[in-house]
């Protein structure tokens, strides 16, 4: 079967520490449920997809809090990127502050064709250096050159631009986002799961393996972001 | 001079163990022939290019046979991918079961513009996990993202789609496939061969180096394919 | 502030050993100047951008001279590719002999739309094997597949072709090259420099790290180029 995971963290679904922990627990339950082969990831409130990093968690806190927060971000990424389920993102809202961390861990991305919606990543604009593993995810999805500009300039894309650069796979009218996500899911689930899962794991293994030292990555984040986020805001 | 290597293994040119061994011997002879600088690879029977993996060799056999078969597949790939000759694929037929292993080892691919022809790879559909070195060849030719979808979903492409995704370099009317292949060959042979060969070897070295442990790859193939191929068929 | 670095080495701005050394010194001064955040790289003489490798330095000289020359080429590339400044290439002329080493180390490339101008690299045509680090720069900018053909065949591109393949980012009328370069620069300089520099360094680090053994690369160059350049000319 297919599960639907809906983000809900008013007002803008931002990835607070609490939200990250809740997501990791939900994903673990779904991962262990053998009856579930695919997960559609979407927002409960059309119009606001968000799930951006929560600047409040990264601003004016002590280093231990920064470290705890970043560890939770890593954990979510690792769970999603190594999932044995087929993941399809049904992007039914905007990323006002940009980060597309979660959609990029999915096998397929469907986005609503609404000129008010954007997707991308504004990390550098708020003084954050995207971690290397997110950079690798982006290089895998884009071309290296597009990833260079997007990451350094903190670019946001409208739906049609996102399609062209390859950040999403399909753009459809907003009322068709869910049904398209489900039919894409059906296509992926038609593949013998043993072969599909091993193939996916082979494709992404190198990217995951690079995060073997999570501590170094946490320290780099705390070191580079502590002052610069506050300065940029 | 330019040699033309024509596949011939009725009815569909599939890569049986015998065919693999014959190809390796033919390639070794050509490789050692200093008078030959380029090889056009094509099918003797227009309409059927094929050279797909032979499911009969991978179904209901004992593990030792699986291992022997896979070693021969590796050997063919290594010979082709490390060839010092300029290789041009003149694709004058369909790949009914898909695998494009051989064309992707060539320096250039010309395909006949026939809507009955397709090229791609259906490995996952029959329960096979493509080996990492074939994945790497695909990532080098496509974008990483296109390779993800193609490999996981076992996709086949019509000639125009194949051109767009980059699996072939040129699509021409079927009666021009051979002449186009030869004029492409002339273009490549105009380059000082010393510089061209060293440049090619530099581009592909990393991909080849990853296969240093052929045994691990053979065992992975036997382990992952033994049951799943039969189940999928 | 923004500095403008103008090439000037009549008649065709080629990268002689003297010119390389002068460039490295100029770059070091700019790099140490904290008031400078960006550098526009251009030619003093519109019509001739050039800055190609100087074949006179690589032809009929003794091995020690080859080695000294190549070390200087490495040094220039390392300085540019690791620069903490934003680099924008304002390509206001042709590369008659092709190499696009310097523009490819920049963060952004603007080229004049003149059908007499070309950009690319003709290394193999004159018997030179491009070094692996230049290959990596090219793969980062292009797709792997485009880099294969471009490097092996020694291809040159007209401005519109260069844009399509991704070797330049923007093509504009020749009288707008400088102003476009400056407005691109303003866009990059709007990013908090701490975050932008660390992001850039993360993107390119792997490519730079590969050149840890400069001696092996020098010896490979001397060995492969000594006879073949003279033969090709």
UniProtKB/TrEMBL annotation, chains A, B, C:
InterPro entries: ClpP/crotonase-like_dom_sf, Enoyl-CoA_hydra/iso
EC number: 5.3.3.8
A single GO molecular function term of this UniProt record: delta(3)-delta(2)-enoyl-CoA isomerase activity
Organism expressing this protein natively: Loxodonta africana
UniProt-listed GO biological process terms: fatty acid beta-oxidation
Protein name: Enoyl-CoA delta isomerase 1, mitochondrial
Gene name per UniProt: ECI1
Name of the top EC class for this enzyme: isomerase
Similarity annotation: Belongs to the enoyl-CoA hydratase/isomerase family.
Subcellular location: Mitochondrion matrix
Keyword Lipid metabolism in record: yes
Keywords, comma-separated and alphabetical: Acetylation, Fatty acid metabolism, Isomerase, Lipid metabolism, Mitochondrion, Transit peptide
Pathways involved: Lipid metabolism; fatty acid beta-oxidation
Keyword Transferase: no
A Gene Ontology cellular-component term: mitochondrial matrix
Functional summary from the UniProt entry: Key enzyme of fatty acid beta-oxidation. Able to isomerize both 3-cis (3Z) and 3-trans (3E) double bonds into the 2-trans (2E) form in a range of enoyl-CoA species, with a preference for (3Z)-enoyl-CoAs over (3E)-enoyl-CoAs. The catalytic efficiency of this enzyme is not affected by the fatty acyl chain length.
Subunit structure: Homotrimer.
Reaction catalysis annotation: (3Z)-hexenoyl-CoA = (2E)-hexenoyl-CoA; (3Z)-dodecenoyl-CoA = (2E)-dodecenoyl-CoA; (3Z)-decenoyl-CoA = (2E)-decenoyl-CoA; (2E)-tetradecenoyl-CoA = (3Z)-tetradecenoyl-CoA
């Amino acid at each position: 079967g297919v599960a639907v995971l809906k983000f809900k963290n008013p007002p803008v679904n931002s990835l607070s520490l609490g939200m990250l922990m809740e997501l990791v627990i939900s994903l673990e339950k779904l991962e262990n449920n053998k009856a579930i082969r695919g997960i559609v990831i979407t927002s409960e409130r059309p119009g606001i997809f968000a799930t951006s990093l929560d600047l409040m968690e990264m601003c004016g806190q002590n280093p231990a809090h920064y470290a705890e927060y970043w560890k939770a971000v890593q954990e979510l990424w690792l769970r999603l990127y190594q999932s044995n389920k087929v993941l399809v993102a049904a992007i039914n809202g905007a990323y006002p502050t940009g980060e597309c961390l979660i959609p990029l861990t999915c096998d397929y991305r469907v986005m609503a064709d609404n000129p008010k919606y954007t997707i991308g990543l504004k990390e550098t604009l708020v003084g954050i250096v995207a971690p290397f593993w997110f950079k690798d995810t982006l290089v895998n999805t884009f071309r290296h050159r597009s990833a260079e500009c997007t990451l350094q300039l903190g670019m946001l894309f409208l739906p049609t631009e996102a399609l062209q650069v390859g950040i999403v796979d399909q753009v459809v009218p907003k009322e068709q986002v869910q049904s398209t996500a489900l039919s894409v899911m059906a296509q992926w689930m038609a593949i013998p799961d043993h072969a599909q899962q091993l193939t996916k794991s082979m494709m992404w293994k190198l990217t995951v393996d690079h995060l073997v030292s999570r501590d170094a990555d946490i320290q780099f984040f705390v070191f580079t972001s502590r002052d610069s986020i506050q300065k940029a805001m």
